[in-house]
Amino acid sequence: MIDKEQKIAAFDPNGVATNTNLFGLPFTYGESETVVLPVPWEVTVSYQSGTANGPQAIKEASLQVDLFDPLLKDAWQRGIYMLEVSPELREKSNALRLKSERYLENLETTPDQAILQEINAGCGEMVQWVEESALQVLNEGKRLALLGGDHSTPLGFIKALAQKHTSFGILQIDAHADLREAYEGFTYSHASIMYNALAVKNVEKIVQVGIRDYCEAENDLMQNNDRVQAYFDRDIKNKAYQGHSWHKQCQSIIESLPEKVYLSFDIDGLDPKLCPNTGTPVAGGLEMSEVLYLLEELVKSGRTIIGLDLNEVAPGADEWDANVGARLLYKLCNLMTLSHQ
Fold this sequence. Notes:
Low-confidence stretches: none
CATH topology: Arginase, Chain A
Distance between the termini: 30 Å
Shape: globular
CATH class: Alpha Beta
């Protein structure tokens, strides 16, 4: 059996992928510094479905990603390994999604409280599974990226990080504030992830970037809770029109964050031309280059990315969203690695 150094010597990073591992890399779990945890879950999606297909679609699209990264020398040699998709988790998501659809059909007339209770219990089990899975990886000294699934999936990861770090901030790239309390009755709704994250006392600050679709109750919370700071898409664009550079705006965003940062990336934070099949696309948003510039500046500031998620990637018939998601995932993992140097 050959070791990692022998694999590096034999691997051609300029050639075509010769295996079906994430990014076509030749490394095992033990040989990889970064581990990707797929969570194919979409029980509470409220508009378009398909995000449970994201992890597998991104893995397949990743074989087309070039491995050179100008910011991190020999980035691929660090190793990025994706765990197997749990068939049990996917089956549970499928079953509960059907019940969720039945519940939502009757939401305004006679909502079935027994179904709601079952869905909330099942989602709670998913959160616990993610927390346990994340802790196992973190306890082995590896960096972890979670790949959704809908945006409810990273709560267990955030809880796991709270067992490893006394205090950290969350940088949320998103079109939505996700600060609704038990949206549509679902305790662990994708629209409630940041509301639920605020219940984790180790979360010092949530800094939201790109927000452009939110309700009055969320606006009240954002305005009145000093643990939440929103950089609305409208304000970002208006400042740009007034001559404020993106560089200066990024510095302001970064200054709002503590030294340790968890990155939560809902792909609908991007302009929907980059993610047209995501569950709840919203006109406006950020370019991929703008987000990557912000994250590069975050790393330059000396802050450490202690974990990240990428979610709400629904591949669609043409797989375009998975193409974007795969390239984004590679850059995010490399930036996390760079922040630890």
